Amino acid sequence: MFKKIQTEIDHFQSQTRNFRILIFTNLVYALVLPVIDIFVAAYIMRNSNDTSKVVIYQLAIYTGIPLTFLLNGFLLKHFNIRKLYSTGMMLSGVAMIIMMSFKILDLTGIGIAGITMGMSFGLYWSNRDYLALAITNDKNRNYYYGLETFFYTIIAIVIPATIGWFIQSKTGDAEKHDAYIIITGIVFLITIVASIVCFRGKFENPVQKQYIFFKFHPLWYKLLSLATFKGLAQGFLVTAPAMLIFKLLGEEGALGNAQSIGAVLAAIVIYLIGRFSKPSDRIKIFAVGLILFALGACLNGFFYNKTGVIIFLLLLLIAKPLMDLAYFPIQLRVIDIVSHIEKRGEFTYILNHEAGLYVGRLCGAGTFLVLYYTLSEDFALRYAIGIIALLQLCSIYISKKIIAEGNILSPEKEEPKFIDPKILDHVAEHIV
Most-buried pick from 193, 207, 226, 331 (CB within 10 A)? Predict the structure, then answer.
């Protein structure tokens, strides 16, 4: 056992310094992601008891993200990428502070906090995606995302359970509100530590300064369609577990416990898949993740009780990492290929990719809100996830087309080997 662990440590140490620094940076920042994803939604639910406000908050976030992606392209001309990356992480703590400062959580406050959090995510993800592209290659991307997802999943065991227990240990609304404030302060401190770790890396800005284009290679449009389907689930999937747990399981303590179910097994499985899978396995990994997600969403809609929620969360813990583990390397591979063909900087495609995600997010969140206002809250929570999960199964077909076309266009394909004409002449002379 110890020899195997040492082998994995040696394999990690064999990666480049920037590879290791980026993993450590994201590892530290991962400590706050469950708070941002789950407990902010729970805080809104506690103070408003209105699931539509949670989705509106999510829409505000998703509006801030693409705007900041665009702004980041301009800022990269003047600031080092490490500064922008660090600012994005620290801004997430600021967004939580803004939300906690409102005594009455109305739509204006939710909108301001959501836009600020969206700006945080925009700076974080745009620079993170570029750095992941820059420091990895197609051969080690499965390992990179598998390792990253392994840490994220382990953290998803400890943080939700710990924070849920901490909030539940308080009595009365005032003490619980104070607990959220303490958590927010800790989040801000962690983002500072993540920023310090980030500055240990020698990350370079993109070379090309023009990022906005309106015409792309057909392969890129296929990836944008895949991004739209991914965005469908992101539209409210981040906060959907919190809403379901709050409605059907109870308080934040149940929230933390439910998120911990099966997470250890999921983390180990994801790491092993990322460590030993090949680029050719990505379709299989992607398909399994999508099918598990659809199965969990449909079972939740069928039961719509505590059992259904737990099954959904258990399958989601495995399905989401599998989908991400396959999707991100596919995305970066396409960027490698298309940027080589079109002679453009990679950040061009990272920026444009966000447009595809945004369209999907609007459709996903819009689906929930339409069902919420035209039918009922229970109907929206029960069936919207299932509808979107089934639609996402189309991604399997699209990803197959992308990989097949990418294999043909790949710049790393061997060039045709021609025989030296002098050798042919020599052979001809002997034949004659």
Answer: 226
Q: How many residues does the chain have?
A: 432
Which domains are present in the chain? 12-201+212-408 (1.20.1250.20)
Q: Are 385 and 319 in contact (CB under 8 A)?
A: no
User: What is the tens place of the pLDDT at every residue in 288-340?
Assistant: 999 999 999 999 888 888 888 888 888 888 888 899 999 999 999 999 999 99
